[in-house]
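Batch job 17 of 40 flagged for manual review because the log was empty.
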Amino acid sequence: MKKIVAYFRSSTHEQLNSIEVQKTQMFDFIKKNEKQYVLEKLFIEHHSGKDRKRIELANAITYCSENDATLAFTKIDRLSRSAYHLYSIVETGVDLLCLDMPELNTLTFGIFATIAQHEAELVSTRTKAALAEVRKHKQLGNPHGFKFNQAIALETKKNARNKWLLSNDVNKAKQIINLLKTNGPASLNEIARTLNFQGIKTYRGKSWQANQVKIFLAQI
């Protein structure tokens, strides 16, 4: 029998029963195929399908790799809406099982990965168009002087940094760093490589370097 590791995802704006629906679908599938599959472990998280920085998905893939298990999910967009991310998951070598498309193979996976990303891009395009329409009716610029604007800018920058330090990205970075330290001291370069692999960006949206990790560790 094949060992199944189930991954369930819902966006933060979805109804609360989304995960329960996915669980029901998975449990029904396992029951109907109990001679072929056995459900070994569940991984659940609430994140956008476009977000590659998902701790539970990474944990699920690692578990499958280490335990010769198959990663199962109800629909391909539950795994990711990014074609690049989906291809990177395929390249891990983990066996995949999509309940919505049990016949999924390497070729069809690529096709549906592209479709999933296209749907996400359509949503993004519609959102940007709506924001552009709103900006048409807003007054641009600031009537105050340079010093006043500079003070506002500095305060805004400070608040933005403090907000970032409390963000999900930083919380994920802390978890990753703590996990790395469980096996002994981790070098700055090792931490930087791991954060970059997980798709976590710095405060300025850049890739991590050793000196940035050093500054970050001093702030948390």
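Reviewer: the log was empty due to a logging misconfiguration, but the result itself is present. The chain has a mean pLDDT of 79. Unflagging and moving on to job 18.
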